Amino acid sequence: MTVIAASRIFDGQRFLTGHAVVIEGDRIAAILPEGGAGPVTRLDGTLAPAFLDLQVNGGGGLMVGGDTDLAALRHICATHQALGCAGVLPTLITDTPQATAAVIAAGIEAARAQVPGFLGLHLEGPHLDPLRHGAHDPALIRPMTPEDLARLCDAARALPVLMVTLAPESATPDQIATLSCAGAIVSLGHTDCDYDTARAAFAAGARCVTHLFNAMSQMGHRTPGLVGAVLSGDTPAGLIADAVHVHPAAMRAALAARPQGIFLVTDCMAFAGTGLSQMDLQGRRILRREGRLTLADGTLAGADLRMDRAIRVLVDQVGIAPERALAMASSEPARVAGLSDEYGALRAGRRADLVLLNDDWALQSAWIAGQPVTRG
User: Fold this and answer.
1) Is 267 an active-site residue?
2) Per the residue annotation, which of 53, 192, 242, 267 is the catalytic one?
């Protein structure tokens, strides 16, 4: 048994002081007043649920791509556990059908092997709108075919979690409905769709939106677009809170409009957990400069972001309460992924996945399944 106390504990909903987390094996046994918990390891800082990241394109020097295998997924997941993530969705951006099939096969193998930190897969594309391609190769973007749909439905049934980012311009409502019924989390993204088309896609079964504000139709007072559909509705949406992809004022407005349902993603690349300054993506050079990842022409290409820094941006620059910022990195993504029974809160019976953050919200330590991991 391990008993850990900290200056304060965020249990997923509120802060507690004078308490300790009791860990037995890989589970939380209890949260008790510190005096009644037995011998205690006392730490300075905030103890909180470990993070969940539903959009990681890579880490530890590796990108998710057509050559990704079980070992690569294991390495990427371990990299993010060292960065405080209890689990991640390794994410394949727009690629060939062969690459998609290979990553799905590797993901199924990872699920069977119970790779620590592997929650499932996120397939971001290729069924997007070329007008909103961002850093995705427009030559590889294409409408969804019956063969694509069958492959994705089979993957959704075989993987613990499958998120698919698509544009309504490249998939019909019937395809969205079929994919959703197979168990996939259909997320709208990289789309220029109007408000009514977005609402129709939600009605068909889409139940998430990928990186709010980025690569999507913006909100105008006569043309609300996908941003307006999110801010006026209840569909969950990911947010890249690096103050580069989205201005703090825009984040503040979005979070005021949506008291719940917005969750943090890093959209990180192979740079995560490394000191790399550049890398190649599908034959194009990505540069890492002053907290930005860009193609040579300046197009943003993923984010140079960790979850602890995203929390700090929300608290210090956006002005969000720390409780909400921490929930956006843990309980909110757990809810979206259907994993709330295991992740996102410090409660008796839940997995013992914890992070210790200092007063500046920087990661100090992490425990995954009750075991300490090397700090990233």
Assistant:
1) yes
2) 267
